[in-house]
Amino acid sequence: MSNHYFQFKQFKIEQEKCAMKVCTDSCLFGAWIKVNESVKSILDIGTGTGLLSLMLAQKSSAHVHGIEIDENAFLQTIENFENSAWNERLTAYHGDVKAFDFSQTFDFIVCNPPFYENEVDSKMHEEKIAKHSLHLTLSYLISAIENLLQADGKFAILLPYYRKDEFEKLAAQHSFYPEQTLFIKQTPAHDFFRYAALFTKENTPNMQHEEISIKAKGNVYSDEAIALLKPYYLYL
Question: What pLDDT digit, counting tens, does each position of 112-157 carry?
């Protein structure tokens, strides 16, 4: 992506200074998520360097908890949280969500999980954890969400588009159903490559669906992408 800064009011994250790459699709995902005013606690599973946690803290009054298994990313998260305008509502944990004792459940859970299972391994250990489901398969993730989410809570997830049907089938086995979905493509000429969804225990027949292209003709951000990202980008 281009060298944008993220606003977060007076706090800025510069892509080159983050321990892990900040992707436009992750930013769109965070901007797309709507957090109800009744939400008081949020868990960000695999928070990375804290991007989604910071975006959700900016748009809500909830206390946001982020857990990250990679130590370098966790240390960057700590720094980002401490330097943010919402540091009193941000808590970072270093650990594996599969074994961590939070001693609470959450109103809302967000996750941009490892994308790939049973595919070619990355060479770097950190990249393996970030991109490959070596520690957190989708099957285990949905079980963790079920255990950590309040009975009336909701969760949002970002996945490769080709895993949409797989995950929706898996979620339905745990009585979770999509309430809102977003399909993301790079340009109008491309196929969809990311799938975002908000899940709830209610199987509603009136599911809301949106589609968005990141770029329009001329390699500029689309109007829809600008509308979502403008509250978070200083220069757009």
Answer: 986 544 444 444 444 444 443 445 689 999 999 999 999 999 999 9
Other Cβ atoms less than 10 A from the Cβ of 100: the count is: 15
Write phi, then psi, for 212 (nearest 5 degrees).
-145, 145
5-229 CATH: 3.40.50.150
More confident residue, 32 or 114: 32
| Sequential DSSP letters for 86-106 | TGGGEEEEES-TTT---SS-E
> Alpha-carbon distance 67 to 102, whole Å?
10
Helix (H) or strand (E) holding 91, with range, is strand 90-94
Assign residue 50 a region (left: φ > 0; alpha: ψ between -120 and 50; beta: otherwise).
left
How confident is the model over 156-183, as pLDDT tens digits?
999 999 999 999 999 999 999 999 999 9
Distance of CA 142 to the CA centre of its chain: 15
- Whole-angstrom distance, CA of residue 136 vs CA of residue 79: 25
Do 142 and 170 meet the contact criterion of CB atoms below 8 Å apart? Answer: yes
Tokens, residue 52: 């989604």
Angle at the Cα of 86 (from 76 to 147), degrees rounded to 5? 75
